[in-house]
């Protein structure tokens, strides 16, 4: 490029035009072809997988029907299938999957309903408590206190405040690490440690207070049922 530009400056126009045509035109065409081929391959894979699943459903359906109900599957036979297909599922989970598939509420599964078994088997079931754990407490003042704490921890601004506290703590620890690494004088380092220790205790106390409030509001079982709460509690204890 440079020798040609030295001989004739108009050659730079050819260089710029080459870059525009090559990078923005030919490259886009190549990317479009690659994307179209990739999309076609993915569609074929999805179509084959879907057809394979539907064929498997038809074969399983033919084995589960009886002469009395040749077009429908009862819960008894569906439960027997789940013992082999998903042995870790409980009887309640199997019943919930059956009721989810039974969109017609007939008590039986047709072939069209049975086609969705793969998606339904991936569901995660969790019980939803209609009453709080402290509903059976006889002490009126204690029940009122627990209800107020529950409303506090269930409010969206409580989680926002916790996230803000975590962000402030992370920024503080970052600043503290930078200051300590830049402090060579032992006197200044001791002075920083004197002020840093109370702030660290404050953050740890706030984390502990958050865990205690959630334990009071949600209850022991509901609190530890969530993975994030278990992780948060373990980090706070450490």
Automatic annotation (TrEMBL):
Q: Where in the cell is it found?
A: Membrane
Please provide the record's keywords in A-Z order: Calcium, Membrane, Transmembrane, Transmembrane helix
Question: Transmembrane residues, as ranges?
Answer: 12-38, 157-175, 195-221
**Statement: the UniProt record of this protein carries the keyword Transferase:** no
InterPro entries xref list: EF-hand-dom_pair (IPR011992), EF_Hand_1_Ca_BS (IPR018247), EF_hand_dom (IPR002048), Ion_trans_dom (IPR005821), TPC1_animal (IPR028801), Volt_channel_dom_sf (IPR027359)
Residue span(s) of domain EF-hand:
97-124
> What membrane topology is given?
Multi-pass membrane protein
Primary localization: membrane
This protein's record includes keyword Membrane: yes
> Its Gene Ontology molecular function terms?
calcium ion binding; monoatomic ion channel activity; voltage-gated channel activity
Source superkingdom: Eukaryota
What are the GO cellular component annotations?
A: endosome membrane; lysosomal membrane
PANTHER family, per the entry: TWO PORE CALCIUM CHANNEL PROTEIN 1 (PTHR46474), TWO PORE CHANNEL PROTEIN 1 (PTHR46474:SF1)
Q: What is the designated name of this protein?
A: EF-hand domain-containing protein
| Organism encoding this protein | Medioppia subpectinata
